[in-house]
Amino acid sequence: MCPSPDTPATTTSVAPLLHGAAHFDPATCNGRTLYQLLTGGVVPRPIAWISTMNRAGVTNLAPFSFFTVVSIDPPIFAVTQVYPGPHRKNKDTVVNLIDTNECVVNVVSEGMAATMNATCAEYPPGTSEMDVLGVKAVASSVVRVPGVARSAVRFECTLRDTMDIGNGRVMLLNVVHIAVDKAVLGPDGASIDSTLTHLVGRLGGDAYTRTNDQLTIKRPTAL
What we know:
single chain, about 220 residues, alpha+beta, Pnp Oxidase, Chain A, 7-stranded antiparallel beta sheet, two-stranded antiparallel sheet, about 15% helix
């Protein structure tokens, strides 16, 4: 069943939870429950605000929070589109990426959060969210797709591969250029000071988190 009754701990080395645990079997849970558990438990999630361009040159802008780094050298991102229904319709972002092989991953600061959220709306195909919402674009250095001018960090990318896994489509992106606002660079000029970017992250439901309140813990040295 989903959920199943709590089961007592079988070892004394694991401290019991204060209120016990609810247990869920993914094989018997419906999609909505799984989505709520996964997006509520895997938090905070970084937001990739992806700009693309169709063959006619019309831009598209949409956020994805199923997003992470999968390789440093070479630098590769993974972004996942989850199909909302059985029709398995690709979002404009995916269609454009497959057609043109290019995009820009823009980071999202708190001051842009409302506009980013507005780009989640269902616009007719071929509509430019940048134009509709007045998002100022900036020319990229390597790819033809423009980035978001106010984004503190912009990763210009090319499509490496796509793969369908379950009800999701994973897109692997090669990072071919990185543009960083000088105002958020660290003292060495080659790192990013995360206390200056004021980025937001995705939580469950309609909730977001700020990155202004940070905790610093030094990595342990080898014994």
